Every structure is written in C-alpha cells, then in structure tokens.
Amino acid sequence: MAENGTPSVDNTSSPQPATPQGEPRLRMVGIGKSFGAVRALSGVDFEVYPGEVVGLVGDNGAGKSTLIKTISGVGPADEGEIFVEGQPVKITTPQAATRLGIQTVYQDLALCDNLDVVSNLFLGREQISPLRTLSENDMESHGLRVLRTLDVKLPSVRAIVSTLSGGQRQSIAVAKSILRNASVVLLDEPTAALGVAQTRQVLQLIRRLREQGLAIVVISHNLADVFEVVDRVIVLRLGKRVGTFTVKDTTPEQIVSAITGAEFGQLLETNGNGGH
C-alpha cells in the first residue's frame, strides 16, 4: 500500500485483462430470485471461464448461497438467462446441473463416514460387472487415476473416510465431482475449519483443477485463502453484484470496502483510528 492510501500495484507482472478472453464456461445474465417479499437476487450477472478460479464473496445475506443454489439447480432462478459454453440452458433441478457438467461441493461434503474412499467416490454411480456384482477392481483403478491426477495423498483408497483428515475428506469430495465429468466446480467454504497444512492441501487441489481447464467458483469468507488461489473476485451485496476485481491488481482492503459498502478512503481512515 502506498503512503497516500492508494493501492500499490505490482508492475513486474505481465498485464492481464480484468476479464479473460473467449467464451465463459458458465454465464448468467440478469438473475433474479425472490422468497415472498424478500428480494434475494436482483439482476445479477455472473461468469466463469475455463481454467479460471473465481472467488464469490459477500457478507451474510448478500446472496451468495442463493446464487449457488441457482447454479446447482437446488433453487432455480425466477428470472434471467443461463448459458453453458455459449448455449442457453435451463437449470431447474440438480440432475439438470449434473448433466451440464456442473458439480457443487458443499461445506458438509456429503460423504459417508462409515464407507471407504472408493465407495464414497462411486456412491450412487457404482460400476456393475456383467455378473451383476460391483466391479470393485475397476472402481478402485478408476478412482486411483483421478486421485493421482489431482495429486491427492491418501494412506489407502480403502481407508474408511472417518479416519481421514479434513483436507483429505475435502479432496475426496472434489475427486467425486471430477468422476462425474464436471466442467464447472462450485466449492462452498472449502477451507472452513481446516488447519494450516490441510488448507494448503486444498488450495493446491484447486490449482490442480485450474490446470486441468475446469472452471472453479470458490465461495469463502477467508480473504487470505481467496487471494492465495483465485484469479478474479466477484462481490455480492444485498443481492446485487457490486464489484469485480482482478486479484493481482487489487488489495484485501478494496474487497472489504466493496463487501461492506464503505468507501475505500473511509475504510483506511477507520482502520487508522483503531476501528473507532
């Protein structure tokens, strides 16, 4: 930060446009959603590109969860348009989202603690042999390939999930989405309640997903993690999109000012006066 209060910019990096070039993997235009008299989303545009990590941030009640439910088909939008690979689509159910390659990893991970890693990876999509029995070897081999691709370290793919660390469990939930041919992955608070080492493991996993060309959306309250791994930040406030930032050209203070609605200069002055 410069002494005059303006954000310092690292000019040593090559210039990067505020928005990536080409067609977004997922684009939403004019999304609106109401719950009775409560307007949860109003005219929200959203986009994420192949090989990009977008951070979706905002205070409680900003509309983040509602937007994610709209994308994942849990709570379809009342109005607006959605495009996948440039084609208009309707996402009215989670099954429709899955068919379009959209997978959501929620904070609770939706794993079965009493089952092993392979069983969790293929839960509900088990591979069946011609003899109508589970193809355990095929599932294990397929699961191992995906886990190696993501550089996930586990003691064994036959380990019971309840014995694994939080970071390993998060990795399994993400690998499960990849096995379902995801092209867009939504991660809801992926580092919540994780220790330093486990958080580092999950952030590295997100980088691996980006390297593979997936479009990733990270919903998080942890700006340190956001700045560590995302390319752009989209800020929601009171159901509207109020800011878009390229991480390499901004600061956490600017993001916070967009989240809270405070002017950037006011935020600096408040911080300088000990928060009074």
- The residue ranges in which pLDDT falls below 50 over 5 or more consecutive positions are 1-18, 265-276
Helical run tally: 9
Strand content: 15-25%
- How does the major sheet shape up? 6 strands, mixed
CATH topology of the domain at 26-108 and 182-270: Rossmann fold
Sum up the overall morphology in one term.
globular
The H/E string reads: EEEHEEHEHHHEHEHEEHH
SS class: alpha/beta
**CATH homologous superfamily annotation of the domain at 26-108 and 182-270:** P-loop containing nucleotide triphosphate hydrolases
Question: What top-tier CATH class of the domain at 26-108 and 182-270 fits best?
Answer: Alpha Beta
Total strands: the figure is 10
Radius of gyration, whole Å: 20 Å
Please bin the fraction of helical residues: 25-40%
- Going across the biggest sheet, name each strand in turn: 6-7-8-3-9-10
Average pLDDT metric: 87
Terminal Cα span = 21 Å
Question: Judging by the overall fold, what is the CATH architecture of the domain at 26-108 and 182-270?
Answer: 3-Layer(aba) Sandwich
Describe this protein with a few key phrases.
about 280 residues; alpha/beta; Rossmann fold; six-stranded mixed sheet; 9 helices; globular; disordered N terminus; disordered C terminus
Structure in words:
The chain has 276 residues and is α/β, with parallel strands linked by helices. Helix content is 32%, strand content 23%. The chain contains 9 helices and 10 strands. α5 (166-179) packs parallel to α6. The radius of gyration is 20 Å and the shape is globular.
